[in-house]
Design brief:
By secondary structure, the protein is an alpha+beta fold. Helix content is 26%, strand content 17%.
């Protein structure tokens, strides 16, 4: 399995882990020990979440488990073609109600995404091919795996030992390489009161939020521009005193 840094470069200094990780499809078909998979779950356990509610749950099947055919059959035909050689299939779901507040969680999917990121990075560090998918039947997954309605099905992940690219269908062999990312290109607001697109928000330079406004420094202008388009969201910062006890994680 090649490293991502062999074909792509970061534009700013970051740990090599972020550039080297990529999601291969070529897997060997070898089994993965439960203890090895638990190391990836352990990494996911330490992901951040709102109220430390940890809304993520993972359902999984190892290739030798009786449930393996059920998990595999949920995949689209194009994903079955390569994921059948994985050592494990893991379904990520998230709870839509915050256990700490009893109220609907606005960030359950966001938090589950953080857990998936930790899971994937640990898998890369352990030398596994880890590939996330949305190409599966979400409705059947909820029904056949008996997932309660208070949970949202998020994504499926294949984990396996790296294999030969030749095991992939020809179209996928051509794509079996680390891909690149969009560059970071700051786009400050054009004028006060102007509309701010989501794309712009992703690339704003140094910003501050004051009274619900986004304050963005204009590039090279040395002055700020105030945009009101996100005013309805009412940005609020909650400050709390440090607590003596350590936040607890689910075992």
């Amino acid at each position: 399995m090649i490293k991502g840094s062999s074909v792509r470069r970061a534009h700013h200094r970051v740990d090599a882990l972020f550039v080297d990780r990529w999601p291969p499809r070529a897997m060997s078909g070898e089994a993965i020990a439960t203890d090895e998979l638990l190391r990836l779950f352990e990494a996911a356990r330490w992901a951040p979440s709102s109220y430390n509610a940890q809304p993520w749950r993972m359902l999984y099947a190892l290739r030798e488990h009786a449930e393996w055919p059920t998990f595999l059959d949920l995949l689209s035909e194009s994903n079955k073609a390569w994921a059948r050689r994985a050592g494990a299939l893991v379904l990520f779901v998230s709870k839509k109600i915050n256990d700490r507040t009893g109220q609907p969680s606005m960030t359950h999917s966001f938090d589950a995404g953080a857990a998936w990121a930790f899971f994937g990075l640990q898998g890369h560090l352990n030398g596994y091919a880890v590939h996330g998918m949305q190409g599966f039947d979400y409705v059947r997954a909820q029904r056949e795996l008996q997932i309660p309605d208070e949970f949202r099905v998020e994504a499926m992940v294949a984990v396996g030992k790296p294999g030969s690219t030749e095991t992939l269908p020809p179209p996928l062999q051509e794509r079996e390489s680390p891909n690149d990312r969009r560059p970071i290109s700051p786009r400050p607001c054009a004028k006060a009161g102007g509309r701010l697109r989501v794309d712009d928000l992703m690339h704003l330079p140094v910003t501050q939020r004051q009274n619900g406004y986004i304050i963005a420094m204009e590039r090279g202008a040395g002055r700020s521009v105030r945009c009101r388009s996100l005013r309805p969201f009412g940005w609020v910062v909650h400050l709390s005193k440090p607590q003596d006890r350590q936040p607890r994680r689910r075992p």
